[in-house]
């Protein structure tokens, strides 16, 4: 089996479905982090208390993961809001899954949702079933990251590279092969005036807890294995090679920022969220 094939053809991403249930469940439990009234509605089904990604996880570990999922979405929302306030009028959401950002409130920007064709077809069916209208300022961009270039597909969709944009890629990098990841990073960082929010995961054997190992194994069983994981120094070096200014936030710090603490401290370990902006003076020779 070619390791570059990370989804089963003809089926939507099962991890996207699981993450949608996790967002719906925890946004109700922790509205102080993220308020998402569409998270449950878009599912068109009861919110699962346990998803395929939770099997084998201790309740405490699953809760930590849920808090992180909310915190990274809140962080991305805040960066989008700040960018639009500065005049950015294009938002690109990579690996959008059942993300509801473009459907919540009124945004003075054009949104591009980029995802696998099968997952996008499934999402559009759910939107219709849930009677959630597709905003006029939203464009769907179907792509198989392993078979097509981001530049080619977004150009066809009408993204204006002469204008700034903010890119969001949450839960995306682990599922990309290194060539596909390089294509995505190269495209994002070559956009003058662009910025991005993305997360990355430590290799399972480098994690400070067993949760990443279990998560990697569970996604592999779904036909969506992790292909690209990095320790912080390694990923920072990659980003700096593209001339990026980096702000790195650990999962624990991000969760604590938005007020969700357990026993007086945040207790999430493993993933990191990065906010990056292009800095030509940082380009490595």
Automatic annotation (TrEMBL):
GO BP terms, alphabetized: methylation
Keyword annotations from UniProtKB, A to Z: Methyltransferase, S-adenosyl-L-methionine, Transferase
Keyword Repeat: no
InterPro entries: Ppm1/Ppm2/Tcmp, SAM-dependent_MTases_sf, SAM_mthyl_Trfase_ML2640-like
GO MF, one annotated term: methyltransferase activity
Enzyme Commission number: 2.1.1.-
Role description: Exhibits S-adenosyl-L-methionine-dependent methyltransferase activity.
NCBIfam families in alphabetical order: mthyl_TIGR00027
Family: Belongs to the UPF0677 family.
Protein name in UniProt: S-adenosyl-L-methionine-dependent methyltransferase
Naturally occurring in which organism (per UniProt): Nocardia nova
Lineage: Bacteria, Bacillati, Actinomycetota, Actinomycetes, Mycobacteriales
């Amino acid at each position: 089996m070619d390791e570059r094939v990370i989804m089963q053809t003809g089926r939507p991403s099962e991890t996207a479905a699981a993450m949608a249930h996790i967002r719906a469940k925890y946004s109700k439990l922790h509205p102080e982090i993220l308020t998402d009234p569409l998270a449950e509605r878009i599912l068109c089904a009861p919110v699962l208390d346990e998803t395929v990604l939770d099997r084998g996880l201790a309740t405490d570990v699953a809760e930590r993961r849920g808090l992180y999922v909310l915190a990274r979405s809140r962080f991305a929302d805040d960066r989008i809001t700040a960018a639009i306030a500065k005049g950015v009028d294009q938002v690109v959401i990579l690996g959008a899954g059942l993300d509801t950002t473009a459907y919540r409130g009124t945004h003075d920007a054009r949104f591009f949702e980029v995802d696998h064709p099968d997952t996008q077809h499934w999402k559009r069916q759910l939107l219709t079933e849930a009677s959630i209208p597709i905003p006029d300022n939203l464009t769907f961009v179907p792509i198989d990251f392993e078979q097509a270039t981001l530049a080619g597909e977004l150009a066809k969709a009408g993204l204006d590279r002469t204008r700034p944009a903010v890119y969001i890629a949450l839960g995306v990098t682990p599922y990309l092969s290194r060539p596909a990841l390089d294509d995505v990073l190269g495209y994002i960082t070559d956009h003058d005036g662009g910025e991005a929010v993305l997360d990355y995961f430590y290799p399972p054997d480098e994690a400070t807890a067993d949760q990443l190992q279990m998560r990697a194994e569970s996604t592999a069983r779904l036909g969506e294995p992790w292909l690209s994981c990095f320790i912080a120094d390694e990923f920072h070096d990659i980003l700096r090679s593209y001339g990026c200014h980096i702000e790195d936030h650990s999962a624990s710090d991000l969760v604590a920022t938005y007020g969700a603490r357990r026993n007086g401290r945040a207790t999430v370990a493993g993933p990191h969220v990065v906010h990056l902006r292009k800095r030509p003076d940082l380009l490595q020779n």
